[in-house]
């Protein structure tokens, strides 16, 4: 590659760059101002929050329930990381030594892995952690446990 | 032209490890300490993958990386739950202030 | 510059890999019967999680506890019978799952030890007042999960397997420590435990990644092939110390011991007693295997070979001396029984490390790792026994302070006498199993010509008399505020009595047990 053609390549990039910058500025600040209708409204200046009316600052404490959902997601997210390599080699394994029996064995192994994780899903489900509004009985149990321990600690002190 | 080789990955791994260790030692915020921890584990995972690709040539190192990711997730889940509970008891997550148990 | 240090690249051939994988799958099928105890544990864990959801909460401590007890004893029986008998039509293998875990008498012995310790802890949980009205399905399943990790850790012969098993031991115990989540002390100790544990784990896996690069394999046996030339030596030393941090954390050895007293004080007492025996023993079992493969006699040479030249075995000896001295000196000034037993457990980690020092070389009738095995057998009964009595006292009187043990002797004569036996065993005086075990540890160290370490251990034993004897003195010689008899439950009395009897048997009629441990060997 000669020096001249290399500079030519860079010129290509430069043209693209200039075009991109001009295109964006032109669209956002010139053409849209000319074309759009201008209707004043306070609601338009507020922060967009998934269609909900926005209330207060965005720097608030998040609800504990987001955390529970994130945890449940995490389990099944990592599960996929294990199943992906398994799925990639599964097709080849049917032809490996032992024939289809080997394939069945490998399939069963993954099934058992999923079954153990499914136990976790049942656990979360039954405890009511999948419900956005937790049942009142589950909340009562938590509160009762807290009271009992506090009472015992007083005795010990 | 410089080719990216094993050395660069190892240096990156070492850098991640050092940054993670520094965060764990310096930061007082419980969640920040957990972030430092993730860096330690990712440094190890990066090393495993780099060695697996450049020197060893089997997939064992990559499989190990997946296991490390899983353990990082499990540890983070448990540790975050503990930090949440710390917040409820101590009204803050500064690690230094959580020290009622001492000699 | 690093390319020269680490092994050369080998080309990867997918087709050959597939063919190899087919035979791997077949060998997995053949290996399944040999991990029967672990499979029983996995099944029991799933059943316990689900049972915790459907059994009424107030019955859970008893019914689920009984189920876990049966599962643990069943798994322990399986571990012994699988370990000693042959399956018809199957050849007894040395290693299982492509060299991931070993199938040797060392692993079988420790598996049986963990499962027995787990069974005792389940009974302790039933005796404890701390879990009244709690959902216990998670508790028992986490306990069994951690024990599963212990079983795998004692058998692991692969670096990755060691790391995975170590984390499987640790992560459930983080949750067990904070099981009473409304308890402020438990919360604090769980934070310290989890952060120390995760950092130790992260540091360890980084060290293991360097070993993987050096050897091109994750098998422990490949560690002996590392050459200690040139730049290699520095990497090996760094990686060695990083990996040691992970083991030191599990064993509660200096300098990774800081979590130990806090966690022992904050955690529920049955969990403390679990941590002090099963998880510590698992760490030691893996450390013994690792050091055997790594080469204790290997010279550490830093900076080209002349400036510093010491052996790994010397490093371990120094750590052992520091650990036992630190543990004993700190234990002197404790008021809380659990905290004192925490420091005492650090001191015992130091004594046990003497067994690692005497592991190789001049073999007497008992080798170092066999001395460790025997010491853990007696430590199991001494320490779990002491904790059982502490649990009973805490449940009946709410007392955890050594001061409040005053006058307990006449109020609960049999149990207080048993506690005295356990404490005498922990000191290491005859006629208890603690004496026999410590005698063996000292013997292997002396055979190895580490006389100074034996002297340090002797001095430490003398120091430890002070704080153990203080409890005995408070119970029997001091007058308490009350003279009311403390209620005895048949289960508590019989468990405590059995453990005290075992401690005495191991101290007096130890020869059959010594015969057993002399037959223990492991792959190397």
How is this structure best described in words?
The complex is a heterotrimer of chains A (157), B (103) and C (524). Chain A has 157 residues and is mostly helical. Chain A folds into two domains: 3-39; 64-156. Chain A is 72% helix and 0% strand. In chain A, α2 (64-94) packs antiparallel against α3 (100-127). Chain A is flat and about 70 Å long. Chain B is built from three helices and no strands. Chain B has helices at residues 6-26, 30-56, 60-90. In chain B, α1 runs antiparallel to α2 and α2 runs antiparallel to α3 (60-90). The radius of gyration of chain B is 17 Å and the shape is elongated. Chain C has a domain at 312-524. Chain C is built from 19 helices and four strands. Chain C has helices spanning 14-31, 36-54, 60-84, 105-127, 137-155, 159-177, 184-215, 231-251, 259-266, 269-294, 312-331, 337-357, 368-397, 408-411, 413-427, 433-447, 451-476, 490-508, 511-518, and strands at residues 95-96, 101-102, 299-302, 308-311. At the B-C interface, α1, α2 and α3 of B face α6, α7 and α9 of C.
């Amino acid at each position: 590659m000669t020096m001249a053609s290399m500079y030519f390549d860079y010129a290509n990039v430069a043209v693209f760059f200039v075009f991109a910058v001009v295109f964006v500025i032109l669209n956002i600040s010139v053409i849209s101002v000319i074309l759009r209708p201008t209707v004043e409204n306070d609601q338009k200046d507020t922060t967009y929050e998934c269609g909900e009316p926005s209330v207060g600052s965005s720097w608030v404490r998040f609800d504990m329930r987001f955390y529970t959902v994130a945890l449940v997601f995490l389990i099944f997210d990592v599960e996929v990381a294990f199943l992906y390599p398994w799925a990639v080699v599964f097709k080849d394994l049917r032809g490996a030594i032992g024939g289809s029996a080997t394939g069945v064995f490998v399939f069963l192994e993954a099934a058992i892995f999923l079954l153990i994780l499914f136990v976790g899903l049942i656990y979360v489900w039954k405890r009511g952690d999948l419900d956005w509004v937790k049942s009142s009985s589950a909340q009562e149990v938590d509160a009762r446990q807290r009271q009992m321990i506090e009472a015992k600690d007083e005795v010990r002190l | 032209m410089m080719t990216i080789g094993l050395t660069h990955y190892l240096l990156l791994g070492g850098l991640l490890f050092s940054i993670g260790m520094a965060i764990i030692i310096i930061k007082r915020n419980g969640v920040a300490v957990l972030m430092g921890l993730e860096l330690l584990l990712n440094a190890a995972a990066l090393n495993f993958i780099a060695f697996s690709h450049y020197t060893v040539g089997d997939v064992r190192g990559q499989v190990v990386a997946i296991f490390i990711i899983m353990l990082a997730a499990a540890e983070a889940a448990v540790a975050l739950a503990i930090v949440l509970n710390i917040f409820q008891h101590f009204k803050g997550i500064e690690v230094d202030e959580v020290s009622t148990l001492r000699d | 510059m690093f390319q020269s240090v680490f092994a050369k690249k080998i080309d990867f051939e997918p087709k050959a890999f597939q063919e190899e994988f087919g035979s791997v799958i077949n060998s997995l099928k053949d290996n399944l019967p040999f991990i029967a105890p672990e499979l029983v544990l996995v099944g029991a864990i799933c059943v316990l999680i689900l049972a915790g959801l459907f059994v009424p909460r107030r019955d859970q401590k008893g019914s689920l506890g009984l189920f876990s007890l049966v599962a643990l004893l069943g798994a322990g029986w399986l571990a012994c019978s699988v370990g000693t008998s042959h399956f018809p039509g199957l050849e007894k293998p040395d290693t299982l799952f492509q060299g991931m875990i070993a199938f040797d008498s060392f692993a079988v012995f420790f598996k049986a030890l963990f499962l027995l310790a787990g069974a005792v802890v389940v009974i302790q949980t039933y005796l404890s007042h701390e879990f009244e009205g709690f959902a216990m399905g998670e508790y028992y399943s986490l306990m069994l999960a951690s024990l599963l990790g212990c079983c795998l850790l004692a058998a692991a012969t692969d670096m990755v397997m060691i790391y995975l098993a170590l984390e499987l031991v640790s992560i459930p115990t983080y949750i067990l420590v904070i099981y009473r989540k409304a308890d402020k002390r438990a919360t604090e100790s769980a934070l310290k435990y989890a952060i120390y544990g995760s950092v130790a784990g992260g540091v360890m896996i980084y060290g293991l990644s360097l070993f993987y690069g050096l050897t091109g394999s994750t098998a422990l046996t490949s560690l002996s092939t590392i050459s200690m030339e040139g730049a290699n030596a520095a990497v090996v030393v760094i990686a060695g110390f990083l990996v040691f941090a992970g083991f030191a954390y599990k064993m509660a050895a200096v300098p990774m011991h800081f979590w130990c007293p806090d966690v022992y004080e904050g955690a529920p007492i049955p969990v403390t007693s679990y941590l002090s025996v099963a998880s510590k023993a698992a760490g030691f079992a893996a450390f013994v295997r690792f050091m055997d493969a790594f080469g204790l006699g290997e010279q550490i040479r830093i900076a080209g070979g002349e400036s510093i030249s010491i052996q790994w075995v010397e490093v371990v000896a120094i750590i052992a001396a520091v650990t036992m001295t630190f543990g004993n000196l700190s234990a002197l000034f404790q008021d809380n029984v659990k905290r004192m037993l925490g420091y005492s457990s650090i001191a015992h980690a130091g004594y046990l490390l003497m067994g690692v020092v005497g592991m190789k070389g001049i073999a007497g009738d008992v080798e170092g790792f066999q001395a460790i095995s025997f010491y853990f057998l007696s430590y199991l009964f001494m320490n779990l026994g002491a904790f059982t009595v502490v649990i009973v006292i805490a449940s009946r009187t709410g007392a955890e302070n050594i001061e409040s043990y005053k006058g307990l002797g006449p109020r609960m004569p049999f149990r207080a006498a048993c506690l005295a036996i356990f404490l005498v065993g922990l000191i290491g005086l005859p006629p208890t199993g603690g004496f026999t075990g410590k005698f063996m540890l000292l013997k292997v160290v002396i055979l190895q010509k580490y006389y100074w370490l034996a002297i340090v251990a002797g001095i430490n034993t003398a120091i430890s008399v002070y704080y153990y004897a203080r409890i005995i003195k408070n119970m029997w010689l001091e007058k308490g505020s009350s003279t009311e008899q403390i209620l005895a439950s048949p289960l508590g009395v019989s468990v405590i009595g059995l453990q005290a009897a075992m401690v005495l048997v191991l101290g007096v009629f130890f020869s059959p047990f010594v015969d057993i441990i002399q037959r223990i060997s492991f792959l190397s």
